[in-house]
Design brief:
alpha/beta; Rossmann fold; five-stranded parallel beta sheet; two-stranded antiparallel ribbon; 7 strands
Length: about 250
């Protein structure tokens, strides 16, 4: 069954992440914990399906304050597929040199912030622009993506570098460069991509480690609560407290 083939591919991917990336995940989690403890921000950026890990981490139940999502709408998701905000426009925009520079102009950053970027292949201009501009501002840059698989792949950016060569720290999502993993008879292209599962796995392994480090240091973690637990009468008050803290953290961004 192809369903089981995809499931097995995903399980193997998670195992590879566990076997090869725990040290890297711990390292970037410590940097993020230092950043959040000092009341600075971990900014998150990606485009296309690489925005899914950004939307997954915050805001959502079990996420916590400290992460600032930068979701540029034309790059975030092509909900109309064709027409306005379609796939053709997206593929063009993610390769436009300088677009990332313009995005960065819309925000205020501190040199003690961190820029966390998601890119499967690491070769497109907008992500590389964001990384280079973040480094110009003194920020550490962390990249998550298929770094080993993308090694040797030609960047589209005039810097001549991929995002994995620019970033200060890299976590390899271990996903195959082709992404889709299941062969379908009588068809050239495969189905069953796994990069989103890889991103989400790495995200929550990282964020739970950040939370663990902060809690061990005695730092309060402002966690978005569930609003759907019977008998929990204080979830709205806890959410209000969390959102108040979030507004303080992004004030001036």
């Amino acid at each position: 069954m192809l369903a089981k083939e995809w499931l097995n591919n995903t399980r193997c991917l998670m195992t590879r992440i566990e076997e090869t990336q725990m040290e890297n995940i711990r390292k970037v989690a410590e940097i993020m914990a230092d950043t959040i403890e000092s009341k600075h921000l971990v900014h998150t950026f990606g485009c296309g399906h690489a925005t899914l890990p950004i939307m997954e981490m915050y805001p959502r139940i079990g996420g916590f304050v400290g992460f600032h999502p930068i979701c540029e709408m034309p790059l975030t998701h092509f909900t109309h597929i064709t027409g306005d905000m379609g796939i053709h426009q997206f593929l063009f925009l993610e390769r436009v040199e300088g677009f990332g520079v313009e995005i960065m102009k819309s925000y205020n950053f501190d040199q003690n912030d961190v820029m966390w970027i998601f890119s499967h292949t690491g070769i497109n201009n907008v992500n590389i622009d964001i990384a280079l501009e973040a480094k110009k501002r003194g920020m550490k840059v962390i990249a998550f993506g298929s770094a080993a698989e993308a090694k040797g792949k030609q960047t589209r950016h005039p810097s001549g570098k991929t995002i994995f060569e620019i970033a200060d720290y890299v976590v390899d999502t271990c996903a195959p460069l082709q992404d889709a993993t299941v062969t379908l008879k009588n068809h050239q292209d495969k189905i069953g991509p796994v990069s989103t599962m890889a991103f989400i796995t790495c995200v929550w392994m990282t964020i739970t480690t950040v939370a663990e480090i902060l809690a061990d240091r005695g730092v309060e973690v402002y966690i978005n609560p569930s609003h759907n637990v019977p008998g929990d009468t204080t979830s709205r008050q806890r959410l209000d407290k969390v959102l108040k803290e979030y507004k303080k953290s992004v004030q001036g961004v």
